[in-house]
């Protein structure tokens, strides 16, 4: 249990710093690379919660595909490589206030509702159980997601194509 | 492990993402901030799934990952179209619907 808490502490500290760098860095490529650190940290948190299939999917889909898509997006929009000073708009002060107030509300309500409730070290939810659950209990949502992905794929091609 | 440590980590990520959406003017960076928000939601889903020892949390986190992938595809296509029409992805200049 001590090892888990230590792992969680290190991981969450790294993720917090990297997430702040994603939204504050003045270099667009660095933002994408810090995003990789955050997404990898989220995969580590999933492993800590004994959700192995979600962790592997997180690495495959996010770090493998989504970040590459972001880097392609940066290249295709001729984003300035290197430091620039025009990545933030003039609402930074208001944005900080909104984010802090939102965090205060969320943290207060979570601490109030769950206090020091402990996650019991229950059974590991294996990939087999996840597969059974998707293809038995959640089959219709799964099919809907499949159609949604197809529609998004076709839609993205139609929107972005030169005509 | 306490449930709240995961919930608070997720709240931190969520609020950092909200700050990014509000403060960034580059379209691609706004989409990256949206990814932070979606990942915060996933941490919550899996933490509650582990807490209740219920597989539904994990299944819904996988659905959220799939929807996020679709969202990034369409979002980047829209940003690309804005770039092609205006030669910039500065979202403060996209204000044609502002009253």
Highlighted features:
heterodimer, A: 163 residues, mainly alpha, Four Helix Bundle (Hemerythrin (Met), subunit A), 2 domains, 6 helices, 76% helix, 0% strand, B: 99 residues, Helix Hairpins
SSE string of chain B, helix = H, strand = E? Answer: HHH
Task: Tell me the number of strands of chain A.
Answer: 0
Regarding quaternary structure, how should these chains be classified?
Answer: heterodimer
**CATH topology label of chain B:** Helix Hairpins
CATH superfamily of the largest domain in chain A: NADH-ubiquinone/plastoquinone oxidoreductase chain 6, subunit NuoJ
Average predicted local confidence, pLDDT of chain A: 90
Q: Give the percentage of residues in beta strands of chain B.
A: under 5%
CATH topology call of the largest domain in chain A: Four Helix Bundle (Hemerythrin (Met), subunit A)
Helical residue percent of chain B?
over 70%
Structure description:
The complex is a heterodimer of chains A (about 160) and B (about 100). Helices cover about 75% and strands about 0% of the residues of chain A. Chain A contains six helices and no strands. Chain B has a single domain, classed as Orthogonal Bundle (Helix Hairpins). Helices cover about 80% and strands about 0% of the residues of chain B. The chains are: A mainly alpha (about 160), B mainly alpha (about 100). The interface between A and B is large, with 89 and 71 residues.
Q: What's a concise summary of this model?
A:
The complex is a heterodimer of chains A (163) and B (99). Chain A is mainly alpha-helical and 163 residues long. Helix content of chain A is 76%, strand content 0%.
């Amino acid at each position: 249990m001590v090892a888990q808490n230590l792992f969680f502490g290190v991981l969450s500290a790294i993720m917090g710093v990297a997430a702040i760098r994603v939204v504050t860095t003045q270099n667009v490529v660095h933002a994408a690379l810090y995003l990789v650190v955050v997404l990898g940290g989220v995969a580590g948190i999933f492993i800590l919660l004994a959700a192995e299939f979600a962790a592997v999917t997180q690495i495959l889909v996010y770090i493998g595909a989504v970040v590459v898509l972001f880097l392609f997006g940066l290249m295709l929009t001729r984003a300035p490589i290197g430091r620039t000073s025009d990545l933030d708009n003039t609402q930074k002060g208001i944005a900080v206030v909104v984010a802090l107030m939102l965090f205060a509300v969320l943290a207060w309500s979570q601490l109030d509702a769950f206090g020091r409730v402990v996650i019991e070290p229950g059974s590991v939810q294996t990939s087999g159980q996840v597969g059974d659950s998707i293809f038995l209990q959640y089959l219709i949502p799964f099919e809907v997601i499949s159609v949604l992905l197809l529609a998004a794929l076709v839609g993205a091609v139609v929107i972005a194509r030169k005509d | 492990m306490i449930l709240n440590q995961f919930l608070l980590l997720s709240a931190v990520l969520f609020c950092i993402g909200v700050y990014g959406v509000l403060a960034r003017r580059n379209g691609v960076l706004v989409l990256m901030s949206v990814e932070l928000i979606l990942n915060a939601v996933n941490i919550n889903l899996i933490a509650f799934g582990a807490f209740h020892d219920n597989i539904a949390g994990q299944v819904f986190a996988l659905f959220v990952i799939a929807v996020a992938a679709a969202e990034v595809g369409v979002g980047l296509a829209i940003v690309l179209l804005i770039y092609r029409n205006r030669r910039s992805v500065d979202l403060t200049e996209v204000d044609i619907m502002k009253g």
